[in-house]
């Protein structure tokens, strides 16, 4: 998969060199391009924002640098999906992560300040699939943290990125429920025992217990996930 990111903070994405995603890049499963929006300004101050038409607080990102940056990425690209992180977007979920993991090319446009001139979305939507995506009902200072979260969630679903694909199946949200609690050795720690069923060797009983735990947890903290 090819991933391009447009941002005014390119060094923010240096951490994509490490961990599972860093390995995926080294092995060629993920190809990453990070683009500095300010490289597409043409004034002495490298200006990317201006005051909003109609008045109001804050600044709006100017369309010209965005247009030029996205032209450079999209011209000649084969059917990319362009994602603009935004608290006004659809909510990013595991099922959207699975959808995006099937794509060949994702482009993330990280806005800052009060947002990006609307015409950038309209112009991009005229030549590519565009999705505004929120990572939750809270406000961040910009799209960078949201982009990192989405890249990690999508990247680990690309075949070969996570060593043991079975570990993807049993985790929170994959089956619509929260994960069951996990235990490892020792069997007693600070007087706290591992639930005996997990030491029983009875796989049917273990599966049933885990399912019960998933349901109880989901009912307690995320009843909205239950049918
Ligand atoms: N930018 C600011 N807040 C955001 C959020 N919650 N999700 C995605 N992008 C954002």
UniProtKB/TrEMBL annotation:
Domain tRNA methyltransferase TRMD/TRM10-type: 1-226
Gene: trmD
Assembly behavior: Homodimer.
Family: Belongs to the RNA methyltransferase TrmD family.
Any matching Pfam family: tRNA_m1G_MT
Protein name: tRNA (guanine-N(1)-)-methyltransferase
List of residues binding S-adenosyl-L-methionine: 111, 135-140
Keyword tRNA processing applies: yes
């Amino acid at each position: 998969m090819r991933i391009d990111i447009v941002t005014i903070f390119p060094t923010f994405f240096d951490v994509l060199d490490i961990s599972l995603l860093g390995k995926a890049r080294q092995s060629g499963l993920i190809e990453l391009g990070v683009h500095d929006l300010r490289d597409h300004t043409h004034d002495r101050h490298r200006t990317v924002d201006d005051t909003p038409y109609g008045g109001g607080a804050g600044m709006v990102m100017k369309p010209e640098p965005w247009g030029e940056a996205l032209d450079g990425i999209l011209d000649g690209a084969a059917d990319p999906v362009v994602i603009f992180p935004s608290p006004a977007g659809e909510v990013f979920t595991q099922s959207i992560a699975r959808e995006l993991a099937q794509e060949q090319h994702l482009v993330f446009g990280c806005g800052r300040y009060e947002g990006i001139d609307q015409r950038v979305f309209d112009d991009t939507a005229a030549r590519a699939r565009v999705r505004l995506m929120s990572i939750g009902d809270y406000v961040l200072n910009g799209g960078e943290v949201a982009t990192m979260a989405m890249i990690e969630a999508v990247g680990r679903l690309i075949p070969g990125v996570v060593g043991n694909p079975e570990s993807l199946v049993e985790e929170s949200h994959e089956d619509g429920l929260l994960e069951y609690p996990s235990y490892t050795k020792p069997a007693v720690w600070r007087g706290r025992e591992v639930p005996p069923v997990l030491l029983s060797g009875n796989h049917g009983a273990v599966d049933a217990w885990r399912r019960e735990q998933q349901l109880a947890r989901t009912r307690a903290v995320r009843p909205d996930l239950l049918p």
